[in-house]
């Protein structure tokens, strides 16, 4: 087997055999295929795509490139939930304790922020003492005790994805459906949960900028999961404006607590209930209506919040911030962004808001950057709201050295206005199963 022939076959849209794909992935991980040949193949995939069979073999080859976890020591059926990445997306922090309160076991492996999108592990690390690097037996013990635990991705899990993702990031080969599908699903399959619920984002803050592409990605991921023997559903959800009111690590933790306390309703709450209901129904076969009721009840009776607090404590977190948000939301500077326009907000470009947060220090510009956990943006006016000139439209927070007026300009340029009243639309656009 040789790499030249493999590149050439994909360039001519000739389907690769299973052993060719396994050879390609193993050889690349072992350093026997150089980056320039891998890049050429990835670009051929971007232009010509892969067949479903090829995508399945690619996912399996990547899954098998490293360690695989065994969840059989967890009592009951396990579920995993994954989002394709968004701005202000703190749904894992809410869905996991809600589903756990309803009887589902959720061993959750999460990532850090990527580009303009945030990561659950960065958010959790704004809680003093929280440890996302617990070992496998502590992880599964906590899941057995409370119903969920969240760890960061282990070094040995799917090394092929780590190497290929870094290459894709620098060779403009990220936005390919078979490549995104194999990258995400190889990690989900290596974690080994029985059921997988996917939140495929569509819109300005997502990798898939339109609903049609989001639908194709969702169908491909659900098919691959089923071919690999998993129960799987994908919700296609709107990421055309940031999710909730807070973007930034500690700010998002406190917003998640507000939702778990039942004090905040709206699009973020609605999405969390739908995701949790789909997790509960997939695992426990309750029917979606009963699952929605159970999810809402777990918030109303505080059982989800209690589980959230228990898990944080077991992972070393100091939970005193639950009663005093200032313990973690202690940014040195605050800057109010004032609207010069009046009218209805017709659109908030999530990607620009995400990038403004990175400028404030909430995300990384390079892999080695450290995070300012206090940095971020609170959206004071949402899509559909009427704004008068002079109203505070957003508030910026940071403890880092940055040019706040310049960042305010950038964040403000994300907002479009209309004279007509705008309807925000549904957060869940479709379900693929
Ligand atoms: N998230 C991933 O893990 N991989 C991708 O390719 C895109 C989003």
Account of the 3D structure:
This protein has 433 residues and is of the alpha/beta class. It contains 16 helices and 13 strands. The protein has helices at residues 3-11, 18-29, 35-48, 52-63, 91-101, 120-124, 136-146, 159-170, 177-191, 211-227, 249-260, 267-284, 288-300, 303-314, 350-360, 404-412, and strands at residues 79-83, 106-110, 148-152, 195-202, 231-238, 246-247, 333-338, 343-348, 376-379, 386-387, 392-398, 415-418, 428-432. The protein has a four-stranded mixed sheet, with helices on both faces. A four-stranded antiparallel sheet has the order 6-9-11-7, sandwiched between helices. A three-stranded antiparallel sheet has the order 10-8-12. Helix 2 (18-29) runs parallel beside helix 4, helix 5 crosses helix 12 and helix 15 packs antiparallel against helix 16.
End-to-end Cα distance, whole Å, is: 37 Å
Can you summarize the main beta sheet?
4 strands, mixed
- For the biggest β-sheet, the strand order reads 1-4-5-13
- From the spread of the alpha carbons, the general shape counts as globular
User: How much β-strand is present in the residues?
Assistant: 15-25%
| Class from helix and strand fractions | alpha/beta
- The helix content, as a percent range, equals 40-55%
Return the string of H and E elements. HHHHEHEHHEHHEHEEHHHHEEHEEEHEE
Hetero compounds: uracil
Unreliable segments (pLDDT under 50, ≥5 consecutive)?
Answer: none
Radius of gyration: 21 Å
Q: With helices defined by DSSP (H or I, 4 residues minimum), what is the helix count?
A: 16
Tally of extended strands? 13
Provide mean pLDDT, rounded.
94
